[in-house]
Amino acid sequence: MTVRGTGYGTTVLVSSIDPGRGGTGMLEQALMALAAAGGSAVVQAAGTDMWTGVRQAVARWFARGDGQRERAELERLDLTARELETTEAAAMERVRIRQEGAWQARIEALLESLDEARRAHAAEDLRTLLVQYTHQGEVSAGHSGQAVGGNVDIRADHNSAAAWNMGDVTLGNPPPPGPLQG
């Protein structure tokens, strides 16, 4: 199974993970990549139509059947969403990176705390969760087409031109009219 988590310039591919190997207090790279995809999924979903489902699924995944822990995780997830919603645009990228890292670290810590069998089960549950929520927003385009799965911000500053698709563009003043135009 392959999970692709795409987030703000990064793509994480996780496939054929054997979470039972290693486990000496340091997660193997494949599980760290899975945790990174999880952190990215949380941050990407905040403030979108997918948030309710991701929020519930992630809280359940962390709680592992403990109702009190699930409520605590829901509160943490709500704090993350609130911070992302109230952050000024200039600081947004920094906050997103910090939040993705924080959720990745929390996922890694949970996986590290489990014995091999439970770690394998938790990793599979997380993969399933990511597949369910990261593929819903996937987009594609045909030959020479363009597709966007997130936000697009196109700007033109200081006498420049910007567009999604642009042909020949000339900037500056037009030439003076010729003798026949005059």
Note down, in words, how this protein is organized:
- The termini are far apart.
- Helices cover 50% and strands 7% of the residues.
- Strands 1-2 form a two-stranded antiparallel ribbon.
- Strand 1 and strand 2 (10-15) form a beta hairpin.
- By secondary structure, the protein is mainly α.
- Helix 1 packs across helix 4, helix 2 packs antiparallel against helix 3 (67-86) and helix 2 (51-63) packs antiparallel against helix 5 (116-134).
- The radius of gyration is 22 Å and the shape is elongated.
- The model is unreliable at 1-25 (pLDDT under 50).
- It is built from five helices and two strands, in the order ββααααα.
Outline the secondary-structure elements.
Blueprint lengths: L1 E6 L2 E6 L13 H17 L5 H13 L3 H20 L5 H22 L2 H19 L48
Antiparallel strand pairs: 1-2
Helix pairs in contact: 1-4, 1-5, 2-3, 2-5
Counting copies of identical and different chains, the oligomeric state is: single chain
- Unreliable runs, pLDDT <50, ≥5 residues? 1-25
SSE class: mainly alpha
Please give the order of strands in the largest beta sheet.
1-2
> Gyration radius, to the nearest Å?
22 Å
Mean pLDDT: 79
